[in-house]
Amino acid sequence: MKKLIFALFMASAAPLVAQTEVAGTAGGGDAAASSPATAEDDGGLTGSVSDEKAWQDLGIAIPGFSTDADRGTAASAGGTAALGKEVARVITADLRNNGLFLPVGPDALPQPTYPDITAPAWQTWAGRNADMLVQGYVNAAPNGTLTIGCYLYDVQLQSELVRGGWTLQPADWRRGAHKCADLVYSRLSGESPFFDSKIAYIAETGPKDNRTKQLAIMDSDGANHRFITTGQATALTPRYSPDYQSIVYLSYLNGNPRIYIYDIAAATQKLVTQSENPTFAPRWSPDGKSILYSMAVNGNTDIYRVSANGGPSTRLTDTPGIDVGGSYSPDGTKIVFESDRSGSQQVYVMNADGTNQRRISFFGGRAATPEWSPRGDQIAFTHMVGNFRIATMNPDGRGLTYLTNSWQDEAPTWAPNGRIVQFFRTERNSGKTSLWQLDLTGRNLRRLRTPVDASDPAWGPVLP
Amino acid sequence: MNRSLATAALVAAALSMSACQSKAPETLPPQPASPTAPAQSAGPEPGSYAHFKSVLGERDVIYFDTDRFNIDSQDAAALQAQAQWLLQYAGTRATIEGHCDERGTRDYNLALGERRANSAKNYLVSLGVPAERISTISYGKERPVALGSNEGSWARNRRAVTITVN
User: Fold this and answer.
1) What is the mean pLDDT of chain B?
2) What pLDDT digit, counting tens, does each position of A219-240 carry?
3) What ipTM does this complex have?
4) Which residues from A are below 8 Å from B64, CB to CB?
5) Does B115 touch chain A (CB under 8 A)?
6) Overall average pLDDT of the A304-323 stretch
7) pTM for this model (two decimals)
8) What integer is the mean pLDDT of A182-195?
9) What pLDDT sits at residue A336?
10) Which CATH architecture describes the domain B44-165?
């Protein structure tokens, strides 16, 4: 079985070699680039390939990354050699924490030399029962920039499957590790990458009747955590812009709920619309050019669209019920939203211009907070029948699938590859909140580590 | 039997207490001298929020059923008392806060709180209070007063609270 999978990898490996630019070469050059494909004939494709856990069960050795010369770097007190080990730890944690493969990190493995990077010591790894091997290097240029190279090898076939390289500022070194984890994950699973991405959310402290709620951001693995607002004004429901330059969110600044765009680099914010009325539930369009929001006029809430640069708003819904939220399909042509026009919260789809509004949720209970998958094939939402559960359905409303069953799970957000759903969980009575995620198969449920309580997660796209 | 006895005792105690209270002023010695009656300044200043609270008591808040925003007869009585006060003190303004229980999603609750606050506002306007004197704000599920996760707490949190300013 395993052999078969390796053979399949092998067959598709060759055209992928030049996929990413390898900035800089390791050791004695790139001599080891993909040996000619000599896929073993394992007797034909008669076996079943339905066991999708096969790739999940691959043992992957991730020894410390090497360096051409141990130089000082702003990214690590220990120089590039120590940083190389840390990069391998980050890759290992990425894969392990998401239940992907069976990774073994650098602290339990021998350290390859720099020339080893492109010419692996096969016997060493085969003796450790590693199916796959991730090696790489961290080099520092005289101007301080780092180059991180990443190589994925099939130990049994003794061949390279894929490589990548990235030149980064020292402060961004973890991105090199995430890019490498993404490369490995994509190559072995066939899915799109997701590790090199960020999450915006609301950090919560204080008693239940007087919560302090701050806008906060972190990398997908929880690193580089930062509080954006002080908490003096209650902040809610953030969404990263597709280019990560800004965050749209709701703030009670000056006492009234309004949506603002916060510019991360400039640390300034501006109102999205000048309005006498409360505005909330903001969402970006996939191209980042416009923003959906909800506004209550005389108590009646409808959904509007406005340019991210301001200007007049376009009203998209017009019913006496509450129409709220909204999430674009990845191609930007449709919007899924919630409405209680039928008497209770249900999920509706409309064209991006507001035409052709139709209900898609017909399975009892209340259905809220729909979010369209970045792949376009699923809608995640909160289903309320007693408990609040995270569920998915097809865009036509069929295929209801529950992912969680807890007292109150709410507000799903998608990993950029559409394979993982994140949400927040509220604890009964205490009101304490936390971020959780699990993959679409319902496996690998885990709580994300945050410095304080956390709600309203919003996962951004993969960084370019 | 025991209970009715106890009740009788309680009633008697209450009666005697209220008798004491109503009697008390008569037995007080006359005010010493000061013509600037301090008794007056001890109470809240008419038209102030404290005065509104002292006059309205618990009727500054109205309550709603799950996902509802209609004004029932109990709400109407409270709002009539609020309107009476607001009409008497024409220089005041009111803010109505709309709230929800925790068993709703965040965005929807912001909308629902706004709808509840507006229900209360519209009722006050129908009783003659000028609309421009009343503003609304929704806190959704962000500011509960009852902290349990049970129907009793949720019922107390589904509310519209009137606050006045001079």
Assistant:
1) 84
2) 999 999 999 999 999 999 999 9
3) 0.87
4) none
5) yes
6) 96
7) 0.85
8) 96
9) 98
10) 2-Layer Sandwich (3.30)
Note whether A256 contacts B137, CB cutoff 8 Å.
Answer: yes
Domain boundaries, chain B: 44-165
In this predicted structure, what is the pLDDT of residue B41?
60
Domain ranges of chain A: 2-189, 198-459
The arrangement of secondary structure in A198-459, i.e. its CATH architecture, is: 6 Propeller (2.120)
Residue at A33: amino acid letter? A
Nearest partner of A134 among A98, A175, A183, judged by Cα: A183
Q: DSSP string spanning A178-201?
A: HHHHHHHHHHHH-PPP-SS-EEEE
**Phi, psi for A108 (deg, rounded to 5):** -115, 15
Task: Note whether B103 contacts A: Cβ–Cβ < 8 A.
Answer: yes
* B74 shares contact with chain A (CB less than 8 Å): no
Q: Which residues of B touch A280 (CB under 8 A)?
A: 107, 110-111
Give A105-122 as a DSSP string. -GGGSPPPPTGGGGS--H
d(CA A458, CA A448): 13
Is pLDDT at B3 greater than 70 in this prediction?
no
For residue A409, the number of C-alpha atoms closer than 13 Å in the C-beta half-sphere is 23
Report CB contact under 8 Å: A322, B149: no
Architecture, CATH, for domain A2-189: 3-Layer(aba) Sandwich (3.40)
- H helical segments located in chain B: 2-27, 38-42, 49-56, 73-88, 106-126, 151-157
- Cβ-defined contact of A322 to B108 (cutoff 8 Å): yes
